[in-house]
Amino acid sequence: MSAIDTGAALPQQKTDYIPVLLPLALALAAFPLIGSFSTWTTLTLAGLAMGMMIFAMASGLTLVFGLMDVMNFGHGAFVAVGAYVAVVAFAPMVALTQSPSLASNLMALIPAMLLAMAVTGVAGYVFERLLVRPVYGQHLKQILITMGGLIVIEQLLYATFGPQLNPLPLPAALRGSIPLGAAAIEKYRLLAVVVGLIVFLALQFTLTRTKIGLLIRAGVENGEMVEALGYRIRRLFVGVFMAGSALAGLGGLMWALYREQAHASIGGEMMVTTFIVIIIGGLGSVGGCFIGSVLLALLANYAGFLAPKVALISNIALMVAVLLWRPRGLYPVTSR
Amino acid sequence: MILSGNPPRGKLLTALLVLVVVVLALAPFLFPGSKPANVAAKICVFALLVASYDLLLGYAGIVSFAHTMFFGIGAYGIAITLYALGPSWGAILLGLGAAILVAALFALAIGLFSLRVQTIFFAMVTLAVASAFAVLASQLSWLTGGEDGRTFRVPEMLRPGFRLIENGPFGITISGRTLSYYLVFCSVVVLFLVMLRIVESPFGRVLQAIRENPFRAEALGYRIIYHRTLANVLAAVFAACAGALNALWLRYTGPDTSLSFNIMIDILLIVVIGGMGTLYGAIIGAALFVLAENYLQTLMGAAFGALNASGAGFVANFFNPDRWLLWLGILFILSVYFFPTGIVGKLRAEPKS
Fold it and tell me: pTM score, two decimals?
């Protein structure tokens, strides 16, 4: 009698695989141009590592925007805070970081990472409370206020740590590279790829396999409906904001170690890159942000090798190209 | 006021504006010397630059981070032509014309590309484009002089050595520097009046309508994208003029004086503290800001020294003259919260019903 077949699977959206193929296509296309396999491997790994670090910084930004419709122009400040946490945390652990054993290096690095995430998470809470909350829904004021937040935090960092560059030597066991055939693979980049993948998988797991993730995704689609079902979306907002800030802090720490120096200006520098990445990925989409980061970093590395002058504008060229193809980014989020 | 039917309103505000304008008009005679002249010229240039940004932010409700790019296009237009063609008025006109054209085309392209969507998207795209432009300008050294920038010569009449009147009545000397200053001052006054006229025109009214309620404006039959793009182009052209004037005054153009992101932050601070959507806020804001930049730091230096001497080393860091942006940043956030119309809004009397 019933025309509805209850056993049939729910209709699902088709998964769009074309963007996933883009980084692969780029890597393959670059191979004949570069010629040598070892150089190509080194560049690709460098690109992946850079992409993972950018992803860690950008993922929070895109998630916050997707869920709360808040674009945090002060996100870069958390990146800078993360970098300075590395400086402060490593100072008392010189014995551990300079020991040649990887285990004791990690004993210094992992607590530093956790500390960076904790500090920036708390900073994110305060930032949300003081600056973002009063201006929900007012885009113009949001942009201005969060930009003001960036200026103030940057200046506070300068006032506390001084305006100079703070050297941040890599832990001893992570310096140098592992020879792999003719290619040299830098150890730290390998670590960055691993950490980035862990972040990505953890995010994907949380978003697709847990109840909180379900609520977040539902909130991105339709916040009012989630509220109507009795969930306090405000708490979810704050949680996501803190998590996003913590990820920015982690990314900042990784980036500062990669550059082996910490300075408050990296916040502003990375802000532009993270914006380009999340525009490419589609505002609000974590998967798109991941692909965007990898794509941008790979292109930057290949272009830097093949045509250094072109590399200066490779980011912006990539953004324009992607937007011409898909005006709302690789994975447009429907509700935005 | 003149030509526009847009008076400042409010006695105190009018008095302040008149004071600023009169002091600026007489600056070379009131305060001889090169530092006051530089301060006065910078106030003029920033008043124009910030007013053009206000056209965008305050009237059209668009946040752009590419305003320094247009400022830089104007400055580099003058620098490149004067450097290549030698000091002549023709070269200045050519440079200005080319800069205005390039700025307008860039603004048109960016506007059509990204103004269709949200404010946020436009803000992000302009930030990205402006940073790419700044990198490009510092790298194409054959054209722009790279990080060093271009120092160039201006026409004879504008050089410091030139004397129009030497020891005239009341011991007045009018040098090329004085003439340069009046070139800047008069251009700024004219362009500012044009902007006042624009915001009071039907076009300006539609812009404000779109800012307040885009859906309603569209329902009334106004093309949002057309008005916003035109506002973007106009703002870019005025910014390019400001850049050209700045270059003529400094006789130098480099990334730090024309393209750096710090200038963008200065513009934001001035427009918000002075008062968004008022235009007059640009004059008051620029005057206060540039004066503070040049003289407040001395004051902070004194506080810094005193605190350092009293042993409060850590606290003293927050009063280091280099940290003055910290205090301005806090003031900026507070003004966005509590005085969204800035100083001008506070000073304006309630309009008579």
Answer: 0.88
